[in-house]
Amino acid sequence: MPERDGYIPGVPCWVDTGQPDPEAAVDFYRGLFGWEFEDVMPADAPGHYFTARIRGGDVAGVSSLPEGQPPIASWNTYVWVDSADDAAAKIGDGGGTVLAEPFDVMNAGRMAVFADPEGAVFSVWQPNQHKGAQVVNEHGALNFNGLHTRDVPGAKRFYGAVFGWGTLDANMREDTMWTMPGYGDHLEEGTPGLREMIAGMGGPPGFEDVVASINPIPADQPDTPPHWSVTFGVDDVDAIAAKAVELGGTVVAPPLDAPWSRTAVLADPAGATFIASKFVADNKDVAG
Fold first, then answer.
1. Which fold does the domain 12-127 belong to in CATH?
2. Is the pTM of this model over 0.90?
């Protein structure tokens, strides 16, 4: 997959994790994925923001938690927008909440933090010098983002109004994927023949426009809050799960075969959960 140099509006473009001990998190993820890190904050800044890289290309961030925020670690999803202020104006109308009004992040860009009507938190990114994840869809790089929700119809209304997203039935059940019209055209420019490749593997029509997944929270999981999840690609899910434990992390859900993939849910030592996934074409018909 070619390295990225930007996204189109409405596409998840960046992930980072807020950590009570960012230096410890850097050690964990360096050991797990082989990331190289640089603290991009000024020397006199009150906190840290470590940018993780593969081959010199940005892949994710590890940051200190804002002062006064509970010491809870989590992974965060950012969606590319032309204007963070315009996005904020749409949030309340759709029943969401603005948790952090738009603000400039030095010369990197402008962002805001929102919650959807169910409380799932996400951010938007209006780029300046920082163009989002540059390396994706390989071992140790961002592979996917997913909304976990109890109200699929309500989510469709909200995210459709904010970002213009549609949905696609990709696994023979209702509304399993978010789509962004025109995203496939954007990808085809960078990877000619992508549509043909997807069709050859049995992907459904329109799969090239997919930007994220929709994951209904089962009724037997009443304590699971609505949230956005982050998935990293790996070469060997079972090996990564074992490595995470060796480094002080936790296996939340052990490796299993899923549609198009083999996945595991892991947590770092501070409790921030993420998904490790390997693409497996032979699993395309595995029940979700």
1. 2,3-Dihydroxybiphenyl 1,2-Dioxygenase; domain 1 (3.10.180)
2. yes
| Residue 187 or 36, more confident | 36
Q: Considering only CA atoms, which of 100, 132, 167 is closest in space to residue 15?
A: 132
Residues 6+ apart with CB under 8 A from 272: 17, 19, 25, 73, 74, 75
Burial of 266 (0-12, 13-18, 19+ CB in 10 A): buried
Contacting residues for 72 by C-beta, under 8 A, at least 6 apart: 20, 65, 271
Distance (Å, whole) CA 53 – CA 61: 9
Q: At what angle do helices 22-33 and 237-246 cross, to 10 degrees?
A: 140
Rg (CA), the chain: 18
Is the CB of residue 40 less than 8 Å from the CB of residue 51?
Answer: yes
Establish whether domains 12-127 and 142-283 are of one fold: yes
User: Amino acid identity of 252?
Assistant: V
Which region among 24-38, 73-87, 192-206, 273-287 has the lowest average model confidence (pLDDT)? Answer: 192-206
Residue in the block written with tokens 């090239």: 208
Domain ranges of the chain: 12-127, 142-283
Give the architecture (CATH level 2) of 142-283.
Answer: Roll (3.10)
Q: Is there a contact between 181 and 164 (Cβ–Cβ < 8 Å)?
A: yes
Which tokens go with 23?
Answer: 């230096």
- List phi, psi (to 5°) of 227: -165, 165
3-state secondary structure of 205: coil
Q: Name the range with the highest mean pLDDT among 132-136, 183-187, 195-199.
A: 132-136
What pLDDT does residue 205 have? Answer: 75
